Amino acid sequence: MRLGESSWNVDVVFSPSEEWEGDAILTCRPLQSTLHVASGGLDLRAVVGRNGSIFSGSLVSKTSSPVSYGVTVFGLELPTESECELSDGSALWHAILSEVTLQALDENHDGVADRIEASGVATGDFLLADLAYTIPLNFELHGVPDTQPPSFLAQPAVHPLDTFTLTASEPISTSTTARLDSATTRVQLAGLAQLGAYTAFTSQMVLPWGTAFSVQVSGADLAGVPFGSGLPIVKTLADPGLFAQDGFEGPLNAWLTGEAKLVANVGTFPALAGGQSLFVPVGSSATLHLARPPGASRVRLSAQTFVPLTPIYVPDPPIEAGVIGGSVHVAAMADQVIPRTPTEDARWSYTAPPQELTLPISESGGDIVLRIAVPDCSDDLCLITEALLVDDLRVE
Ligand SMILES: [Ca+2]
Ligand SMILES: [Ca+2]
To answer: Which ligand is nearest to the CA of 246?
Structure first.
């Protein structure tokens, strides 16, 4: 039968195509997604999505008796989550339905479709480390009307300086509103619109330490099913305690990850001031809570860059600050000085002179969050492998 505006929960099961000549064994579990179909001119517009991913395509009339639909040359991309694995360890990361025959069925003859079925051909991109290859797949799709309430994905404790993102389990109506509520703070969230639906809600606010927020949401998925109860509680990182602003000489209150630590020297280079400085190498971070004296308007610190190999370019130091309750994220900026001075350190072989950095704080509020987070270079996405030595950190 003809398909009208409708929403479906679909299972897509992939199998290797006869055309595939590889000898690895393919194992798949069903790919589960929502499929929303709406009128889009001559064709039907299809939107598929889940867990923050969303794709759209067109369903075009294929045969009239019985009525069936196909896809355009652009196909219909699906939101994958490694549903298929090959015995060599590679996993599906990208799947496009390229040849489709889809039918809607009305089994109880009430004039409303109660099932959709499709089959056809897909292309699957598989990824093993940074090696990608494409495998032709067959697929079968089964869909039932979407009666499942949408929800939000749970997440680990939120860092105050992260852009807060609450991801929806499926695309939801753009008339939906959401906020976070705690005993003392209310945070209005902004919907992230993609392809005519919201996939997530976000906030730029620097959230307070150690707070549990309930999610208050009013709205529904694309089928009109409202959010259920049992939404996740959003928790923020606990307060590490106030940083003494003592030049890292006494006991340190901070959240340290990776290999961040207090050091007396790096190679032949001593602490920047006093006997100790904070050392934050690649893939590590330090988060500090600084009290702001009345009238203080900036965070000051000195920082020295260390590298294993002399680079041709040095990015700004990965240091940012914000005021709790504010929304401005201030990033540190430094002069471009290439580290060329030998250090005699086994790993961090070269350095440049330390620089004085200033982060202006324009918003009001007495609690400042500072994060030094040197990106992990194992995925080759950062510009250089570096370490920072930091000292003289204070609010003034
Ligand atoms: Ca639903
Ligand atoms: Ca010091």
So the answer is: 2
Q: Point out the ligand nearest to the CA of residue 248.
A: 2
How much distance in Å is there from the Cα of 208 to the middle of ligand 2? 28
CA of 221 to the centre of ligand 1 (A): 6
Q: Which two tokens stand for residue 28?
A: 């798949």
Task: Give exposure, 98-111, as e/b (b: 16+ Cβ within 10 Å).
Answer: bebebbbeeeeeee
Contacts of 108 (CB under 8 A, 6+ apart): 114
| Distance between Cα 314 and ligand 2 center (Å) | 24
Reported as a pLDDT band with limits 50, 70 and 90, residue 312 is confident
Tell me if the pTM is above 0.85.
yes
Query: Nearest ligand, CA of residue 389?
Result: 2
For residue range 122-179, list pLDDT tens digits in order. Answer: 999 998 877 888 999 999 999 999 999 999 998 899 999 999 999 999 999 999 999 9
